[in-house]
Design goal:
Elements lengths: L2 E5 L5 E4 L3 H10 L9 E2 L4 E2 L4 E2 L4 E2 L4 E2 L4 E2 L4 E2 L4 E2 L3 E3 L4 E2 L4 E4 L4 E3 L5 E3 L6 E3 L4 E2 L4 E3 L6 E3 L4 E2 L4 E2 L4 E2 L4 E2 L3 E2 L4 E2 L4 E2 L4 E2 L10 E2 L4 E2 L8 E3 L4 E3 L10
Parallel strand pairs: 3-6, 4-7, 5-8, 6-9, 7-10, 8-11, 9-12, 10-13, 11-16, 12-17, 13-18, 16-19, 17-20, 18-21, 19-22, 20-23, 21-24, 22-25, 23-26, 24-27, 26-28, 27-29, 28-30
Antiparallel strand pairs: 1-2, 14-15, 30-31
């Protein structure tokens, strides 16, 4: 909450708030571009088996593959690729160069050592109010979808493996979440950290920059190092590090 306190020099208003960073975030939202909505760039390719809502936006040189859905207010910036079976929720934003829904990295060896690929049909489910940074890769699930839950934020240059789950309201800052792992509600992953397959980061957990998660992270716990170990410090409020 912000309370007008007094007229400031130059005719500007001064607001008093206990959460200045939050107040600033809300104020920047007043200048958000709205002309993007309801426009498909002529260089974009939309597969006839996909659906794009009338108020969605598809940027230049983007590709929306078969079985994909863009719901109301969703935004694809230039050169986004939705390979197949990708659902993008209301008001979600995917930045330039991201690839969503490519096959996961899954192979099995024959007796003679040759590799046999496991095909992927699960796609990716992205819920409402998600933001995905530039050049991020999110692999499609094997049979069930990889899930990016409501309100989660994924930085640029991230890798999310097949059948992983992110969110809701979790943050992944330029890290790697390998297949079959879940980053749960309100968790935060620092720069260049890695979560190995099948390890969950529970609600409110924090993984420090460059940490390697080789076992589950308990709720409201901070882990650091290689391999990651718990420390006493806890993330508080809007502090992100």
């Amino acid at each position: 909450p912000m309370t007008p306190a007094a007229a400031w020099t130059g005719g500007m208003l001064l607001f008093i708030t206990p959460r200045p960073r939050l107040a600033f975030a809300h104020m920047t939202g007043l200048f958000k571009r709205t002309e993007l909505l309801g426009f498909v760039h002529p260089t974009a390719v939309i597969d006839p088996e996909s659906f794009v809502a009338p108020t969605a936006h598809v940027g230049a040189l983007s590709y929306v593959g078969p079985g994909c859905v863009l719901r109301a207010g969703a935004v694809l910036h230039p050169r986004v690729t939705l390979v197949r079976y990708v659902s993008v929720g209301e008001r979600s934003v995917i930045h330039a160069g991201a690839t969503i829904g490519a096959d996961g990295y899954s192979y099995v060896r024959e007796d003679d050592g040759t590799l046999v690929k496991i095909e992927h049909f699960g796609g990716v489910q992205i819920e409402a109010d998600v933001e995905i940074g530039p050049n991020t890769n999110i692999n499609g699930g094997t049979l069930d979808p990889t899930r990016i839950l409501a309100g989660s934020k994924i930085d640029g240059m991230c890798h999310i493996g097949h059948n992983a789950q992110i969110g809701p309201h979790a943050c992944v800052a330029a890290g790697t979440v390998m297949g079959r792992s879940a980053v749960k509600e309100g968790a935060w992953l620092g720069l260049n950290c890695t979560v190995l397959p099948g390890n969950d980061v529970e609600a409110g957990g924090t993984v420090a920059a460059h940490a390697l998660v080789s076992k589950p992270v308990p709720a409201d716990t901070t882990v650091v190092g290689v391999p990651a170990k718990a420390i006493a410090r806890k993330r508080v409020g809007e502090v992100m590090w």
